[in-house]
Amino acid sequence: MRVMLRCRGFFWKQLSVVVALFLAAAPPAGARERIAPPEPSRNAWVSDASVQQMARALETYRALAQRPQPAELPNKTTLRFGDSGQPVADLRARLVLTGDLRPGGDAFAFDADVEAAVKRYQLRNGVEPTGIVFGITQRLLNVPLDVRVRQLELNLQRMRELLPKLGTQPRYILMNAASFELQGIEGGTVAVTSRTIAGKRATPTPVVSAQVQALNTLPYWHVPGTIAKAALIPMIRKDPGYLYKEKIRVFSSFGGEEVDPGSVNWWGPEAERYVFRQDPGEHNALGVLRFDMPNKHIVYMHDTPMKNLFSYFERAVSAGCVRLQNFWGVADWILAGQDGLSAAALQGRVASGQQSTVRLKQPVPVHFIYLTAWVDNGAVQFRNDLYNRDASAFVSGEDVSARPMGVSVAP
Questions:
Q1: What is the pTM of this model?
Q2: pLDDT value of position 6
Q3: Among the listed ranges 29-38, 128-137, 226-235, 387-396, which one has the minimum average pLDDT value?
Q4: Which CATH superfamily does the domain covering 170-391 fall into?
Q5: Which residue among the candidates 7, 283, 297, 321 is catalytic per the annotation?
Q6: Cβ(124)–Cβ(376) under 8 Å?
Q7: Cys-Cys with 4: which of 12, 90, 152, 298 at CB 3.0–4.6 Å?
Q8: What integer pLDDT is reported at residue 25 of this predicted model?
Q9: Which residue among 7, 222, 302, 367 is the active-site one?
Q10: What pLDDT, on the 0 to 100 scale, is given for residue 7?
């Protein structure tokens, strides 16, 4: 079965011409060790309870937005433990207003309480909790509360529109592209979670509902023609052994005969007519497992050999498909009740080099969603509007607060 072409981002990462993209996000030599992202929440993003909590958070933020607002933190501000002065006083005022810091203490001192409050604020905003205010943390702190009100209104609307659909599904998957996380829901309870990697800004993961219909062990990866032309063929010209090292085969056409790479004139125009397929295995762009979920956007979920990327807080590096860290755990949950199969059985197939397609008798609904705000254990969570979908709704002038409730919320 030919792999869908949308999911091609890993190949760009393999090519040396774009390795710098990932190195730029990594800390320099000698820098402090990165803090690992927290595990995905065990509280369902979309439920009657979460809608109720969001409605309460919205009312709270509407009230906060009516209060006098602290001064903005100047651009290029850097504040850390031990600092003092008026910028620290402004920081403390903001953290008190958002509920991350208790009132009291030395109003001008960046003490241990302020450091802990900054870390709480960073975690609530999906930022690495360094306890230091600079860069993105400084910019987030300056977001006006009336903008946060609109963000909460918009995401509450999204929840209310999705909730009726979920209410008819006993088991389903939610993947939030804005938070890079997945939840498997069963009977209203989060049964399995995973960190994810989603699409880059230029190739966003779409909002889509589909069904996981099959699992594929040791899938092939067919190189899209656009990538072959723009990146693979130039790489072959530089390094004739590249195809061998990456275990990529050359074919005359889809379904055609295999071609000896040494017989091809890679400098001629005919090079672009060949088809390229990467052998299955741990090195493969799709890893060792693919989750088939037919949809008009041609996106799906899969394993990845680039497991180090899950250690970053922002994980927008794919071409639109979704890579799973806990792919075996998700597969095991999906397979529950499917003729006695389990992830362990599929792992055995992988270990023995067996390619297979397991079709589900009971497909599992999956929803790729985009929530940039929700409430988790009483803490309001905000995430970066990675794909500018919130901004587009705001610019359109849509009055999301005027929408009817649509869903009755249990007391």
A1: 0.86
A2: 52
A3: 29-38
A4: L,D-transpeptidase catalytic domain-like (2.40.440.10)
A5: 321
A6: no
A7: 298
A8: 36
A9: 302
A10: 64
